[in-house]
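In this section we walk through a basic example: taking a raw amino acid sequence and producing a predicted 3D structure, encoded as discrete structure tokens. The instruction is simple. Fold the sequence below.
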Amino acid sequence: MKKIFAYFLLILLLISAIPSFFGEKPALVLNHADSSLPIEPLLSTLIKNQITPLSVENQQDETTLIFENKKEQREAQQVLSLAFPLAHSHFSFVSAAPQLFSQVGLTPINLGLDLRGGVQFMLQVEIDDSVKSLVEATSTNARHVARAEGIRSRIADIDNNGFSVIITNLSSRDSNSIQSVTDHMRSQFSEWKISVNDNVLRFTLDESIKEEQASLAMQQTLNIMRQRIESLGITEAVTQRQGADRILIELPGVQDPQVAKRVIGATATISFHTVVDSSQAAQTHTTRDGESVRLSRQPVLTGEYIIGASASVGEFGQPEVNLVLSSAGGSKMSDFSRSSIGKPMATLYSEYHQDHNNQLVQRHEVINIATIQSQLGSRFRITGIGQISDAQDLALILRSGSLTVPVTIIDEQVIGPSLGEENIQKGLLAVIVGLVLTFISMLILYRKFGIIACAALITNIVMIVGLLSLIPGATLTLPGIAGLVLTMGMAVDTNVLVFERIKEEMRSGRSLASAIPRGYKEARSTIIDANLTSLITAIILFVIGYGAVKGFAITLAIGLLTSMFTGLLFSQMWMTKLWGQDNDKA
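The resulting token sequence is shown next.
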């Protein structure tokens, strides 16, 4: 039973490793979720430019073109981006193995940024702004609560620690009234500490709430970044938190980072406001033509209610974005529009920019003012966006969610495909040289036993490749190749310990047949202890490490497990099969 399980596992991992040995072909993925894309004009456009794809895979919302080399891949992207501006395109790779493997979900190992080439971004997340937004929102709500109770007030001393509500129509002599207002405020804002000094209510935010708010903002930003990258069609990206306020994003295979940079770093959002006259409280913004417009302070609807967005070209050739609202957003828009037919509503576009002091400031622009002609539902469109590329970017950002805090790209690194290929070649050379030297050493030192060690080592490598292909999210990096080479040496250590123990048993007078099981039994505990100690180290590196350290740790951990499996199970089965019945003592 043990043999059946061992060989079944080996065959399974060998099959999963096969696509990795075939490698990958460069591909170009056209995402046309916003519009249809017929195959015939696409292929004719490429053929006119002397570009012939190896194959075309067409799905409902995307088309994948597979090419022989990266030169054709890059040329095809340049041609198609001009011919089909509504279709987003990005570089990708598909398995060169027979299609049968892809159909059962077996794909090559994911290669990291240093092996495939691509772009890396480091983002600075302004998490303090989430606390500031909470304080500002609470101060506005506090005024509304006071107004509902017939109390006139104003806000003062607002900062990231809290704010003050100054009651203007009560004096310190009205202690009972002030106490009643304070009790009501405490019941409405229970998470805030509220102290009273005469007619001033001081709201103070607890440190634990600040930390919770900052953590929530960071997690929301991480989720939105992953959604934005996924909307670009990049499936092998790495998005992870680094430290308290930074996010590392790696996009393997991406060589033109401009589109990704615009989408990842975008802080744009939209909101809908009523246009008000001079008799009402308002905020003033300008249109693209420089005209001032007075808008209501409270928006009718914000970007958080948008669950779908797509770019298209209107009947007069102008770019537009078609919006889909959530059920709650649809209800709000329906109720508002029903009571506001004939009145103007403005679309306010907001985005963060750096000023001359490198400080992030939010700029607002009215991109559209339309008169409500009928009751609106959960689907409608906005215009006045500019170019079609602007409409596509805005639709993509709205689909993946608007950021609650601004982010800044503070570092950008592009690793060219030629450097990635060079790293792969050097990594493979290191593995091959390590294998050859290990084979020679084992054959010289242990002769026929060395053949078993070499077979176990090859089996070990196949199992490592198979496991890396099967584990979701596992990525092979250049440090990972270093871990693979290190694992090769540690795997041989297992065989060396066993062989030396067998030699000792034979020197004490045992036959080879009886020395083999004895040698494995005596060496087993030492081998397991040594590998478990290294495995604990690899786990620690994986948990606390980032990037290259994680890549090294995961390959090392997998290699340690497979080396114990091949060194203690397969090699013993083969040794027993070949010499288990032999009485030779030499």
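Looking at the output, two observations stand out. The first helix runs from residue 2 to 22. The radius of gyration is 33 Å. In the next section we compare this with other chains.
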